[in-house]
Amino acid sequence: MTIDALDALTLARIQFAFTISFHFIFPAFSIGLASFLMVLEGLWLKTGKPLYLDLFKYWLKVFAVAFAMGVVSGIVMSYQFGTNWSVFSDRAGPVIGPLMAYEVLTAFFLEAGFLGVMLFGMNRVGKKLHFAATCLVALGTFVSAFWILSVNSWMQTPTGFVMGDNGQFLPGGSWLDIIFNPSFPYRLVHTVIAAYLTTAFVVGGVGAWHLLRNSANAHARKMFSMAMWMAALVAPIQIFAGDMHGLNTLEHQPQKVMAMEGHYDSHPEGAPLILFGIPDSEAKEVRYKLEIPKVSSLILKHDPNAPLAGLDTIPDEDEPPVGIVFWSFRVMVGIGFAMLGLGMWSLLARWRGRLYDWTWLHRAALVMGPSGFVAVIAGWITTEVGRQPFTVYNLMRTADSASPLDAPAVATSLLAFVIVYFAVFGIGTWYIMKLMHNIPHDDETGVKRGDTGPIRTAGITPGPSQNPGEADTFPADRPRDDRGEG
User: Fold this and answer.
1) What is the pTM of this model?
2) DSSP structure string for 167-191
C-alpha cells in the first residue's frame, strides 16, 4: 500500500469520525427530549396545570431545531458510505442496506409525518390527537435508534450471514438473527438510557441556571426537579446496564475490553483494575499506572482470582489503538459516576427541603449540563475505535473497506465538512443556547392565563382546564414543593 493510500485511509477515517460525532450529538438529545415532551404534554392533559404547557412549548422549540440539525447531519453522513467506503458498502450492503432502509421506512416517515402536527397542530386537530402525534414522534426517535444500533451492532458482532462467492456478506437465514445479533440488546439499552440522561442533564442545567437567577421561578423549579429525579433514578440503572454491556463485550470482542482495561499482559491469577496511566503500545505496558489488585477480574468475572487474557494473546496487527480506547472509556465511566453523584446529592437536598435554594447543587448541575454529550461521544469512540482494525469485526478490515481515492480528494472534502459544520451547526447550537437562556412565561407565548387565542410560537391553544387565577409560582409555605414535587 502506498503512502497516498495510507493518507487517504486516515483522512477518510477522520472525516467519518468528525461527521458522526457531530451527528450523534443531536439524536442523543432529541431521543430523550421527544420523550420529555411526551411526559410534559401528558402531565398537562392529566392535571390541567398551565405550567406543564409552558414547559412543553419552551422545549418544543429547542426540539425542533435539534431535530432539524440531526436530520441534516445524518443525511450528509450517509453519503460517505458511497464516496469514502464504497468497498464496504458493496460487500456488506446486502445485510446492512435493508436495515437502513427499514429505518427510513418506519422511523423517519413516522417522525416526519407527525412532527408537523406536533409543532403546529393542537388548535387544528385537538389536544388528544396532538398528544398522540407527540407520542408517535417520540416512538419514531426510538425506532430510529433501534435500526441504526442494529446495523452498528451487526458490524460489532456479525451473525446470520453467509459469504458469497464474490466476498459479499449475504443473509443466511432468519433476519431476526441479523437484527438481534448478540450485542444489539445491550447496546440498544445502554445507548437509549444514555440519551435520556443526556437530555435530563441538559434540562437540569437549564433549570439550575434559572434557579441561580431566581430560585422562586416555578418553571425552573419544575424543570430542575424532574431532571434530578431522572438523574437519581436512571443513573444507577445505566451503570448496571453498562456493566452488562461490558460483560457481553468481553464474551464477543475480548480485545476491545483488553484495550479498555489496559491489559497488555495476561493475568492468570486475577487482573488489576488500572484507574489511570499512560498506555505505551510500543513497550506493551501502561506507564505510571495507579491500579487496584484483582478488581478487574472481580468486575468482569465476578471472581477476584479469575484469570483474564491480555493483548499478548492477540496478534499485533489485530490490536485496537489502546491509548484512545483506554482514555475514552475512563471519560465515559467517570462522567457516569459523576451523574450518579449529582443525583444522590439532589436526593439529599430534596430530603432536607433545599432542592431549590442549595446554590452549590445548582452550580454543579449547571457544570454537568453538557456532560451527557461528552459521555455519549466518549462511549461511541470506545465502541468504534475498540472495534478497529475491522469494520466488520474479525471479518473485514477497515483498510480493505475504503474507496480507491487519492488523499487530496479526501482532504478537500474533509476541509469543506469542517468549515460548513462549524458554521451551520455552530449557529444552530448558538440559537438553541439562546432559547434556553430565556425562561418560559406567558408573555413570551402570546397568551395569558385563560386566553383561548392561538399561541404564535407553537400553534397550541390552552385547554379549558387551565385556571386563569392559578399562581405562576408555588407558595413558599408548601413543603411538598420545597422538597421537589414532580
Assistant:
1) 0.84
2) S-EEE-S-HHHHHT-TTHHHHHHHH
Name the residue with cell 433501534. 146
Mean pLDDT, the chain, integer: 84
Q: 358-367 burial string, b = 16+ CB within 10 Å, else e?
A: beebbebbbe
Name the CA dihedral angle for 486, 67, 178, 174, rounded to a multiple of 10 degrees.
90
At 268-282, the pLDDT tens digits run 888 899 898 899 888
Q: Where are the beta strands (DSSP E) in 239-387?
A: 273-280, 285-292
Are 343 and 228 in contact by the 8 Å Cβ rule? The answer is yes
Q: Are 139 and 110 in contact (CB under 8 A)?
A: yes
Model pLDDT for residues 274-323, shown as the tens digit of each residue: 898 899 888 888 889 888 998 898 988 888 888 989 898 999 899 999 99
Q: Residues of 373-382 as b/e, b for ≥16 C-beta within 10 angstroms?
A: bbbbbbbbbb
423 neighbors 415 (Cβ within 8 angstroms):
no
Give the alpha-carbon dihedral of 282, 285, 287, 293, to 10 degrees: 170
Q: What distance in Å separates the CA atoms of residue 322 and residue 466, rounded to the nearest whole number? A: 58
